[in-house]
Design goal:
single chain; 159 residues; mainly alpha; disordered N terminus; disordered C terminus
Amino acid sequence: MTIKENNNLISIGELAIRSGMAASALRFYESRGLISSVRNGSQRRHFAREVLRRVAFIKAAQTAGLTLEEIENTLASLPDQRTPTKQDWEKLSRSWQDLIQKRIDDLTALRDQLTSCIGCGCLSLKSCALYNPEDIAKTRGNGARYLLGDKPGKQKNPK
Protein backbone atom coordinates (compact mmCIF):
# COMPACT_ATOMS: atom_id res chain seq x y z
CA MET A 1 0.00 0.00 0.00
CA THR A 2 1.31 3.46 -0.80
CA ILE A 3 0.59 6.61 1.15
CA LYS A 4 -1.43 8.04 -1.78
CA GLU A 5 -3.64 4.95 -1.82
CA ASN A 6 -4.65 5.32 1.81
CA ASN A 7 -6.40 8.42 3.13
CA ASN A 8 -6.60 6.74 6.53
CA LEU A 9 -3.01 7.79 7.28
CA ILE A 10 -1.92 10.92 9.12
CA SER A 11 1.49 12.51 9.39
CA ILE A 12 3.50 12.51 12.60
CA GLY A 13 2.82 16.25 12.86
CA GLU A 14 -0.92 15.73 12.71
CA LEU A 15 -0.68 12.85 15.18
CA ALA A 16 1.31 15.09 17.54
CA ILE A 17 -1.25 17.89 17.31
CA ARG A 18 -4.30 15.65 17.65
CA SER A 19 -2.86 13.54 20.48
CA GLY A 20 -1.28 16.42 22.39
CA MET A 21 2.05 14.57 22.38
CA ALA A 22 5.40 15.87 21.16
CA ALA A 23 6.61 14.30 17.92
CA SER A 24 9.77 13.23 19.78
CA ALA A 25 7.61 11.29 22.28
CA LEU A 26 5.77 9.61 19.41
CA ARG A 27 9.07 8.62 17.80
CA PHE A 28 10.18 7.24 21.18
CA TYR A 29 6.94 5.25 21.52
CA GLU A 30 7.53 3.88 18.03
CA SER A 31 11.10 2.87 18.92
CA ARG A 32 9.68 0.95 21.90
CA GLY A 33 7.10 -0.79 19.69
CA LEU A 34 4.12 0.89 21.34
CA ILE A 35 2.95 2.38 18.03
CA SER A 36 3.94 1.80 14.43
CA SER A 37 4.08 3.81 11.25
CA VAL A 38 4.59 3.35 7.53
CA ARG A 39 7.08 5.39 5.52
CA ASN A 40 6.49 7.23 2.29
CA GLY A 41 9.04 7.60 -0.53
CA SER A 42 10.93 10.32 1.34
CA GLN A 43 10.94 8.15 4.50
CA ARG A 44 8.47 10.36 6.40
CA ARG A 45 6.40 8.62 9.04
CA HIS A 46 2.67 8.24 8.59
CA PHE A 47 0.33 6.59 11.07
CA ALA A 48 -3.04 4.90 10.78
CA ARG A 49 -5.74 7.07 12.37
CA GLU A 50 -6.41 4.32 14.92
CA VAL A 51 -2.98 5.07 16.41
CA LEU A 52 -4.67 8.10 18.00
CA ARG A 53 -6.70 5.70 20.16
CA ARG A 54 -3.56 3.68 20.96
CA VAL A 55 -1.75 6.87 22.07
CA ALA A 56 -4.78 7.80 24.20
CA PHE A 57 -4.59 4.33 25.77
CA ILE A 58 -0.88 4.84 26.54
CA LYS A 59 -1.54 8.25 28.08
CA ALA A 60 -4.39 6.87 30.21
CA ALA A 61 -2.22 4.00 31.42
CA GLN A 62 0.59 6.42 32.29
CA THR A 63 -1.88 8.62 34.15
CA ALA A 64 -2.93 5.53 36.11
CA GLY A 65 0.74 5.16 37.11
CA LEU A 66 1.86 2.36 34.82
CA THR A 67 5.42 2.36 33.55
CA LEU A 68 6.18 2.13 29.85
CA GLU A 69 7.38 -1.44 30.39
CA GLU A 70 4.05 -2.37 31.97
CA ILE A 71 2.21 -0.67 29.11
CA GLU A 72 4.38 -2.50 26.55
CA ASN A 73 3.56 -5.83 28.20
CA THR A 74 -0.14 -4.97 28.24
CA LEU A 75 -0.22 -3.97 24.58
CA ALA A 76 1.84 -7.04 23.62
CA SER A 77 -0.94 -9.19 25.11
CA LEU A 78 -3.35 -7.97 22.42
CA PRO A 79 -3.54 -10.01 19.24
CA ASP A 80 -1.83 -8.65 16.11
CA GLN A 81 -0.74 -5.35 17.71
CA ARG A 82 -4.35 -4.19 17.51
CA THR A 83 -5.53 -0.99 19.11
CA PRO A 84 -7.35 -1.74 22.38
CA THR A 85 -11.12 -1.91 22.12
CA LYS A 86 -13.56 -0.82 24.82
CA GLN A 87 -13.74 -4.45 25.99
CA ASP A 88 -9.92 -4.65 26.05
CA TRP A 89 -9.74 -1.47 28.13
CA GLU A 90 -12.29 -2.78 30.64
CA LYS A 91 -10.40 -6.06 31.04
CA LEU A 92 -6.93 -4.52 31.14
CA SER A 93 -7.86 -1.71 33.52
CA ARG A 94 -9.37 -4.25 35.94
CA SER A 95 -6.09 -6.16 35.87
CA TRP A 96 -4.27 -3.00 37.02
CA GLN A 97 -6.40 -2.46 40.12
CA ASP A 98 -4.10 -4.37 42.50
CA LEU A 99 -1.02 -2.63 41.12
CA ILE A 100 -2.64 0.79 41.47
CA GLN A 101 -3.89 -0.02 44.97
CA LYS A 102 -0.35 -1.00 46.05
CA ARG A 103 0.97 2.31 44.73
CA ILE A 104 -1.78 4.17 46.61
CA ASP A 105 -0.90 2.28 49.80
CA ASP A 106 2.83 2.99 49.33
CA LEU A 107 2.20 6.69 48.72
CA THR A 108 -0.15 6.90 51.71
CA ALA A 109 2.49 5.30 53.94
CA LEU A 110 5.12 7.66 52.57
CA ARG A 111 2.86 10.66 53.17
CA ASP A 112 2.18 9.53 56.73
CA GLN A 113 5.88 8.94 57.44
CA LEU A 114 6.88 12.34 56.09
CA THR A 115 4.73 14.20 58.60
CA SER A 116 7.38 13.49 61.24
CA CYS A 117 10.38 13.71 58.93
CA ILE A 118 11.98 16.66 57.21
CA GLY A 119 13.85 14.54 54.69
CA CYS A 120 16.99 13.97 56.72
CA GLY A 121 18.84 16.69 58.12
CA CYS A 122 17.46 14.52 60.89
CA LEU A 123 16.26 16.21 64.02
CA SER A 124 16.00 12.98 65.99
CA LEU A 125 17.95 9.87 65.10
CA LYS A 126 16.16 8.05 67.92
CA SER A 127 12.81 8.25 66.14
CA CYS A 128 13.97 8.37 62.50
CA ALA A 129 12.46 5.58 60.42
CA LEU A 130 15.19 6.07 57.84
CA TYR A 131 18.16 5.80 60.22
CA ASN A 132 20.55 3.25 58.80
CA PRO A 133 23.54 2.61 61.05
CA GLU A 134 26.33 0.52 59.54
CA ASP A 135 24.53 0.56 56.17
CA ILE A 136 22.14 -2.25 57.10
CA ALA A 137 19.71 -1.31 54.30
CA LYS A 138 22.23 -2.24 51.59
CA THR A 139 21.24 -5.89 52.05
CA ARG A 140 17.66 -5.03 51.00
CA GLY A 141 18.57 -3.71 47.53
CA ASN A 142 19.02 -0.40 45.77
CA GLY A 143 17.06 2.75 46.38
CA ALA A 144 15.40 4.26 49.39
CA ARG A 145 14.32 0.90 50.78
CA TYR A 146 12.51 2.18 53.86
CA LEU A 147 10.55 4.68 51.79
CA LEU A 148 9.74 1.89 49.29
CA GLY A 149 7.95 -0.07 52.00
CA ASP A 150 10.77 -2.22 53.40
CA LYS A 151 10.61 -2.24 57.17
CA PRO A 152 13.78 -1.31 59.02
CA GLY A 153 15.29 -4.26 60.86
CA LYS A 154 16.38 -4.15 64.46
CA GLN A 155 18.99 -1.45 64.60
CA LYS A 156 21.43 -0.23 67.16
CA ASN A 157 20.53 2.95 68.97
CA PRO A 158 22.33 5.99 67.63
CA LYS A 159 25.20 7.32 69.65
